[in-house]
Design brief:
mainly beta, 6-stranded antiparallel β-sheet, 12 strands
Length: about 210
């Protein structure tokens, strides 16, 4: 599963990209009675905060707030960062994977993040916790879905051919999403004035979907 790539110019503030329920044949409950929710990329967000860049990958959503976060040890998530040509080749393929602490009655999950530029080794620790190492912060867990979209307006627009969006309607309001958030010094991924391209993939062990 491949999320739409986005380019972050460091003169800009933020850039979002969405990929919900794509491809439908593997991720949409309307098409597949057993959708691969854990591998379904939702959105990518990238923005600057002072000297840091925040990278966010959301997945397995939207979902009602009564449901827990989704952690699947058999899915490999990759957030690709490119800061040079060719822009389709990742200079920093940041990967993360979830695991389960069987000594904690199977209720405690953890995350391992690899290939973070400037980090010696991996960042490993429990979910729903701020993990810090070598100037990089990682947090994985359940979040209020930050994406804003008028799904009703979109469907009406497609059906009628007339723009029917209403900026007071948010399909994602009051729903949650699983996510991994990475805060990293911008200097570690910047390369002069080159744009930084970011895209994400998921792969279930046994073959890419």
């Amino acid at each position: 599963l491949l999320a739409i790539p986005l380019a972050l110019q460091f003169a800009e503030q933020r850039a979002p990209a969405a990929d919900h329920l794509d491809p439908p044949a593997r991720t949409s409950p309307a098409v597949d009675t057993t959708p691969d929710t854990a591998a379904d990329i939702a959105d990518i967000f990238a923005f600057q905060n002072g000297a840091s860049t925040i990278l966010v990958l959301t997945f397995a959503g939207p979902q009602v707030t009564s449901r827990p976060a989704v952690y699947d040890r058999d899915v490999l998530y990759t957030m690709n960062v490119s800061n040079a040509t060719p822009r389709t080749s990742a200079n920093f393929p940041i990967t993360f994977q979830f695991g389960q602490d069987m000594g904690a009655n199977g209720n405690q999950f953890g995350i391992r993040v690899r290939n973070l530029p400037g980090v010696n080794g991996d960042i490993i620790g429990p979910v729903e916790t701020n993990l810090n190492k070598d100037g990089v912060k990682v947090r994985a867990g359940l979040f209020d879905d930050p994406f804003f979209f008028d799904l009703q307006g979109f469907r009406e627009t497609v059906s009628s051919g007339t723009l029917s969006f209403d900026n007071t309607r948010d399909f994602f309001a009051g729903q949650n999403v699983s996510a991994v958030v990475i805060e990293i010094p911008t200097s570690r991924i910047a390369n002069g004035t080159n744009p930084v391209d970011i895209w994400a993939t998921t792969a279930r062990f046994g073959g890419q979907l």
